[in-house]
Specification:
The chain has 233 residues and is of the alpha+beta class. Helices cover 50% and strands 20% of the residues.
Length: 233
Amino acid sequence: MAIYVKKDNTFEQAEPVSRECPHCGAHAQLIPIATPSFEAIRSAGPRQVGIAFRCAACNEPRFGRAAVRSIDTVSVELSSNIIEVERAQQRFPYSYLPAAVERLFREALQCYNADCHNAFASMCRRTVQTAIADLGSNARLEWFELYKDVVRIGEIDEATAQVLETVLFGADGPVPEIGADHAAVLVEMIKDMAYQSYVRAAKLRAAMRMRRYFAEEASSKITSLERHRAETA
């Protein structure tokens, strides 16, 4: 599907564009508010043009680029693949992580958002190494089991799984180069592994402590039948 800028500067989209908003977090439609001029495109002949949108959910401005496919005397055809200038940030409950792990993990996700795929891969390895050092002697095996669970549940193909295993656990060799496809799998993998190892564990322990607290409170307020008889005799 394409986008067209007509000779009279009307802007036509075959279908609406929706994205996750970096401001409000909603997956909302991008409504065009400032579109390129037909004559300016014909005159300059650029490879890409900029378009200003607003988020349909929060009305904040959004900016994107679209490739110019063709230019003729009545219209300009643009690609429907809008490349966003400002992306939605990766979300994670960082407060559950130790400070050293949090610092590296934040930087890893920032590299992913910036499309720095190989820097992202390197930071993922450093995050895993730091987490394993923090969690103790059995942590490497536990994190490897988390990795295998993600591979199984996510139905990740063998070739991709081998590359990502080397990225995360190949401590004695260089980090292999990865592209956008590998990075898209790796970001979900590392987020799930960190969540299972730190967030899930902390929430489960907190829930159990709370259950035990209320159970003890309730039992302390219950008077046994024998004690009740003794007190009323």
